[in-house]
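Consider the tokenized backbone below.
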């Protein structure tokens, strides 16, 4: 997050939000005490969506750099005489589609 331009105040706030999370379980329909998490965010945590989006932004930048460096390829899409659009990947929700040639070195570079 620091490399994406977030300031130290924001980073401290995010860490605080992650580190103070407490959970409670229901026993026979009644909440039974609280306990701290030792593994960070969990599915359903409101912050996990934002952190996922930031992670996908980093993945998107890395894929773009790999294409620019010739390590993987994308595909060009052109409609008629319009300018071709180069697509290397598509991201939607929690899905990622990567377009590259079916070559061993491209797949190795992707991984």
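A designed sequence for it:
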């Amino acid at each position: 997050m620091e490399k994406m331009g977030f300031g130290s105040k924001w980073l401290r706030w995010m860490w605080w939000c992650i580190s103070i999370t407490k959970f409670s379980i229901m026993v026979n329909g009644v909440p039974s005490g609280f306990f701290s998490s030792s593994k960070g965010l969990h599915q359903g945590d409101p912050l996990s969506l934002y952190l996922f989006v930031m992670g996908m932004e980093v993945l998107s930048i890395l894929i773009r750099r790999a294409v620019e460096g010739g390590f993987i390829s994308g595909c060009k899409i052109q409609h008629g005489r319009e300018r071709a659009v180069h697509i290397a990947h598509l991201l939607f929700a929690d899905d990622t589609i990567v377009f590259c040639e079916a070559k061993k070195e491209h797949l190795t570079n992707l991984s």
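The longest helix spans residues 46-68.
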